[in-house]
Write a structure and sequence with these properties.
Elements lengths: L5 H17 L3 E7 L2 E8 L3 H13 L6 E5 L3 E7 L5 E8 L2 E9 L5 E8 L2 E9 L5 E8 L2 E9 L6 E8 L2 E9 L5 E8 L2 E9 L5 E8 L2 E9 L5 E8 L2 E5 L1
Antiparallel strand pairs: 1-2, 1-3, 4-5, 5-6, 6-7, 7-8, 8-9, 9-10, 10-11, 11-12, 12-13, 13-14, 14-15, 15-16, 16-17, 17-18
């Protein structure tokens, strides 16, 4: 014990008893001559705590230890002014891991989803203040990936639906008016509109058709009025008008 500075012993004893009482994991960095020599996670179970404490005493650390506490388990991260919880997340070794839930100020659930090692993973859902589901989609490694769906809150009709890949829209995406009539439909490629896109009025009548390439008008662009008569037709190239027909 004579080789361990008094302050180092007090620090170790304090850390040991705090960890017993609060059952927390601790990242310990051993400092020698002002330089970090090793890092490790202290065990939380009883036998691990005793073994850790004995090993550190017998190691005769020259200048004590530096310690940080990692979040583990469920934490209320934010509250509204009225005291109502706003965000509750689960942590593992200081990173979000597991279920995260968000609420409105009135206590109604707003959204929930999962994290894995600090990044969104799997199913995420969102609800209106009247408890109706309005969004649903999947994440992979922190990016939107897979089917994404949104609903109109008032009518509960589909509002939009399509797929993401690595955070970008891909494939066919469809949007609907609140009355259930189709509003638009077309393809995305690498997050940008591509090929033929069609649009409709709320009545279901055709509104517009346009050819796209890399998010720009490229090809024919045609518009119809509410009586079904075509009143505009143009040709574009890379977003630049070439000819009005």
């Amino acid at each position: 014990m004579s080789g361990i500075p008094f302050l180092g012993c007090v620090t170790l004893l304090t850390m040991f008893f705090i960890s017993l009482i609060f059952n927390v994991k601790i990242l310990v960095s051993v400092i020698v001559d002002g330089k970090p020599m090793m890092n490790f996670i202290k065990e939380t179970h009883w036998s691990g705590q005793c073994a850790f404490f004995i090993r550190r005493l017998t190691a005769k650390i020259p200048q004590g230890v530096f310690r940080n506490w990692f979040k583990n388990g469920a934490y209320i991260e934010e509250r509204f002014a009225n005291g109502q919880r706003k965000v509750v997340s689960h942590y593992r070794y200081g990173r979000r891991h597991g279920l995260t839930v968000l609420w409105y100020a009135n206590g109604q659930r707003f959204a929930q989803g999962y994290y894995q090692n600090g990044r969104e993973e799997g199913l995420w859902e969102e609800w209106s203040q009247t408890a109706l589901k309005i969004k649903e989609g999947h994440y992979r490694a922190g990016q939107l990936d897979g089917l994404w769906t949104e609903w109109w809150e008032a009518s509960e009709q589909l509002e939009k639906q399509g797929h993401y890949k690595n955070g970008e829209k891909v494939g066919c995406w469809t949007c609907w008016h609140e009355n259930g009539q189709k509003k638009s439909e077309g393809d995305f490629k690498a997050g940008k509109q591509d090929a033929l896109w069609s649009y409709w009025y709320e009545s279901g009548d055709r509104l517009r058709e346009q050819q796209m390439r890399a998010g720009k008008l490229h090809g024919s662009y045609t518009v119809w009025n509410t009586q079904g008569l075509m009143y505009k037709k143009e040709l574009y190239s890379d977003g630049v008008l070439q000819q009005a027909l």
